[in-house]
Design brief:
The complex is a heterodimer of chains A (143) and B (166).
Chain A (H helix, E strand, L loop, with lengths): L2 H10 L8 H38 L13 H5 L4 E16 L7 E16 L4 E16 L4
Antiparallel strand pairs in A: 1-2, 2-3
Chain B lengths: L1 H23 L2 H17 L8 H19 L26 H13 L2 H12 L4 H8 L3 H18 L10
The chains are: A alpha+beta (143), B mainly alpha (166).
Amino acid sequence: MNNDDIENLLARMPLVKAPASLDAKVLGRARRGRRVIFWTAAAAGLAAAAAVVAAINFSGLTKPPTLPAPPLESVAATEPVRVEQNWSQLSYEGIVVPDGRTPLKKFRRQAIEHVQWIDAASGTKTEMTIPREEVILIKASVD
Amino acid sequence: MRHAIEQIYGERRQGLFTLALAITRCPARAEDAVQEAFARLWKSPARPGGDLVPYVFAAVRNAAVDQVRRQDAAATGEPASIYNGLPPDPSSEAISAEEHRLVREAVDALPAHEREAVVMRIYGGLAFEEMAQALGEPLQTVASRYRRALEKLGERIKGLAGPSHE
């Protein structure tokens, strides 16, 4: 058994799957981080706008121009949380010899990717399901 | 950078989790390690100049090592394998129950740093150069370690080299 054989064998071993809950934990944190940045930016923007208004007031103008306030819905908006789940299975379909000379082991991997975007602000949920199928050919060693 | 790291997570989540599991030998701690690593990455202002993939793997590895350090020795149970403990479906020809048992035992018996190298290469899909960056070690050292691990695995599972696997 050479190194290629060992690598092929290792690649076919069924791994303990990463739990689906991990996606929400990892990506949820990223989204929350983005929201913190968003709110910080929004607060900074409002503070800057207030400073401009104050500066104009202090410049002696009798009636300062009205600065457009940021639309309320843009401040309240939050990004939807993305939850992704994946399923896959690998099946062996035997030896094939496509070119008539080199024997190849044929595997078929079928996978389903399911993604949900959950928008807590509006209570909406968007889902997407992507089925995939791939054929993997691995050179079969001949002893 | 966030988008790039999210993309790496999406593409390599299984490899990252398997690396954490190979180090912690506990699925719950592995999950905590991956979560902790990404929490650090979201906060970190560091922007490595080169490839982000080794940077992310290094973060998960460091978090997993931290988990092991914090582990209460008295509370440890049987170390978990990175492989599914259930015997393969008898109808599946992808791998036999005997192959599964032998490989599982052989990989579990590897020294931790060699098991890490195998996981990074096979399940993380890292090139030797990326492994060297993630581990902070010379490329030649990492490549030698990986080859040594394969040799040990080959010794332990050489009984499988029969014609039924061709």
